[in-house]
Amino acid sequence: MLLRHPAAVVLCENRARADMMAIDSQKRWLSRSLIALVASAVYLYAYPSATIYFGIVVLFHVAAGIVFSVLLGFTLFRLLGNEGLLARFGWILLAMGAILGITLIKIGTPSHLKSWLYAHIAMCMSGALCLLASWLASREWLGRGAAQRGLGFVALLLLTAGIVAGAWWTREIAWQKANRISNPLMPPETMNGEGDGPQGKFFPSSAQTRHGGNIPSKYFMQSDACQRCHGDIYKQWDSSMHHFSSFNNQWYRKSIEYMQEVAGVKSSKWCAGCHDPALLYSGLFDTPIKQIVDRPEARAGLGCLMCHSIVQVKSTMGQGDFFLEYPKLHELAASENPVVRSLHDFLVRLNPEPHRRTFLKPFMRADTAEFCSSCHKVHLDVAVNRYRWIRGFNEYDNWQASGVSGQGARAFYYPKAPMNCADCHMPQVPSNDAGNIKGLVHSHRFPGANTAVPTANQDQAQFEFTKKFLQDKQLTVDIFAISPAGNEASAPVRTEMGKPELSTTFAVGEESDVSLPKGPAGEVRPVTAPIDRTDAAVRRGDDARVDVVVRTRKVGHFFPGGTVDAFDAWLELQARQSHQ
Fold first, then answer.
1. Which among 75, 121, 64 is positioned nearest to 96, based on CA atoms?
2. What gap in Å lies between CA 435 and CA 356, rounded to an integer?
3. Which residue, of 170, 195, 310, 422, has the fewest CB within 10 Å?
């Protein structure tokens, strides 16, 4: 029989007691770290915002996560040998979540790795829940019997589900509801009721800033800071019409110079709200443009931070009817200090959501056409033309009244699915830029009908992209009928009540009355149609009228669109003898 010396027994007991005390101490530190991690995680998930406080919490969460992972790595096997089954399962889940968390600190959480982020959250949350249930059960706070413990565990699950649902609702639903575009019940009676009114800094543009003051011009001139993460999009924008919206566009420059000579500087702010942000919102536009046209601000165009700083579109009246916000933390992104810039980029890479919420509001995707209407729909009033209210160009109402929007009740053409502005003018293109979705981003070349600017800029890539866009079956031309030409007259446009209206080159919607050439009342004229199914012929010396039908096929608004008084669109028809 083997006998132990009493001193050896005491030594073993002391060692076991010391091991237990060490494990308890490590568990306390792990538990404290875990509580801090859970609390910060709930805040980070539910309330993402581009603030210094949020950034501090992100860094705290990272530091606490690293400390927790190191402690858990040293104690995991001890814990697995001294805990119950539920607690062991919890520690294993936390270890897996910690490994994934450390990985995400290294590689970041871009859109295509969002599933990894949610896997990290799910494993850590489940592990923490298991440990909490085990701790409560050890103190009989979940009940004493099996049935009571089962009910207690269900109650704990429901409480956790409620917290998760509340955090999700705050993050997603409340955010979406707070960032939609809706029209006021009544529009202003005159332009004086728009924006900040006649005494406003930017009037007669309807644009406003959140803080009611100016925005530094350099803010709109730092698009190159964006290319650190969005290189492809930056290159696309660099060739686009948005970039050449200001006095780097010779045609626009001449228009504003003439307007200021005729109507003064203040009236031309009507244009600057959407064309010249670096000048208007900084206060520089109070100076006649001829005096500042060579400044960099005059050639900045619409940079990334013009469209992406719009935090509210007040209506679909257009005319720059939006609020701009100047996020002070942008100074970190554009800082020339490499440490500050690196810290900013690290935070954005680690948690892109605050950056996304600052520069990509929900209405930019959910209400795309309404968002675009803020600049692609205008009107003139006394403050601009010293005459009366007149509709300017209006792409939004055209689109809404057409079948392309899915809202036009009188349309005879409907695509397979409703389409908005971005579906045509921001087609998806391959890219590995940050923020890409399945390797695709929306092109920021903004193709339209303008081939003059890329030609003047000798930008062959932009020209070819625009040409390809225009030749992609946007229109069809049908030579329908031929008839002898006679005396024709154009009747004035009339309303349904029969009263003449002021004619305009800017159509409003498919409901617009378009007057066609008419001959004398009661005239009978021979018509040969359809021309491709008949033997149409003309004689030398005769004047003939050819009826041609031009239809928009992939255009969500009237053709031509835009400022139709600033360009020409024509249909060229050649007649040849049959043997030639």
1. 121
2. 9
3. 170
Contacts of 334 (CB under 8 A, 6+ apart): 218, 222, 225
**pLDDT by residue, tens only, the chain of 580 residues:** 555 555 555 555 555 555 556 566 777 888 888 999 999 999 999 999 999 999 999 999 999 999 999 988 888 887 777 777 888 899 999 999 999 999 999 999 988 899 999 999 999 999 999 988 888 887 777 767 777 778 888 888 899 999 999 999 999 999 999 999 999 999 888 889 999 999 999 999 999 999 999 999 999 999 999 999 999 999 999 999 999 999 999 999 999 999 999 999 999 999 999 999 999 999 999 999 999 999 999 999 999 999 999 999 999 999 899 999 998 788 888 888 889 989 999 999 999 999 999 999 999 999 999 999 999 999 988 999 888 888 888 999 989 988 888 888 777 777 888 899 999 999 999 999 988 999 999 999 999 988 999 999 999 999 999 999 999 988 889 989 998 887 665 555 555 444 444 444 455 444 454 445 555 655 667 888 888 888 888 888 888 889 998 888 888 888 878 887 777 788 888 887 766 5
Our CA angle for 410, 413, 418, nearest 5°, is: 95
For the chain, what are the domain ranges?
12-177, 191-411
How many residues does the structure list for the chain? 580
The Cα-based distances of 70 to 21, 39, 329 in angstroms read: 19, 20, 33
Q: Which of 329, 205, 327 is nearest to 268 (CA)?
A: 205
Pairwise CA distance, residues 356 & 418, whole Å: 26
Alpha carbon distance 459, 470 (integer Å): 17
Show the tokens assigned to 580.
């030639």
